[in-house]
Fold:
Amino acid sequence: MWLIALACLAGGYLSGSIPFGLVFARLFGLGDLRKIGSGNIGATNALRTGNKAMAALTLAGDVLKGTVPVLVAARWGNEAAAIAGLGAFLGHLFPVWLGFKGGKGVATYLGILLGMAPVGVLVFAAVWLSVAAIWRYSSLAALAATLVVPAACLILGYPAAAALTAVLTIIVYLKHHANIRRLLAGTEGKIGAKG
Structure:
């Protein structure tokens, strides 16, 4: 069992550590995504390049690198799937290829949720879209959505997903500490703003 758990963690980490934003930015001739906008390698910063296709591909890649390892590991049960999901999340946040400096994990969080509790994605999307439509802050929308998801998963009958997303939500908040400070100061960049 320990070997399976380690394999799931390692496989998840390797999947999560693929820096899709960096790869797609270079393929689209946009240079190093880390030198644009917030310097983050995720889809929100990819959108700041003005290239919506590249941002969409980045989002899809970051989501799927959470979903795929979860679905593969699920053959050994929900616990194995959760371990693979944790590995993917940590891989995205701390990729070995980029000196352990990765993204903030929201898209990969969503991908893990898609693999473990698909109905939870609807809850996430409803909260994210509502908050984003009203205030136009991606970070605020993500913080609100991730806060609601663990309770929703528990209520909907996905205890393993509820436990994992509770842990991931805490990490998301820690990774967004600078965004939270900017939101409180009124200096956070809005969705679609370039630079």
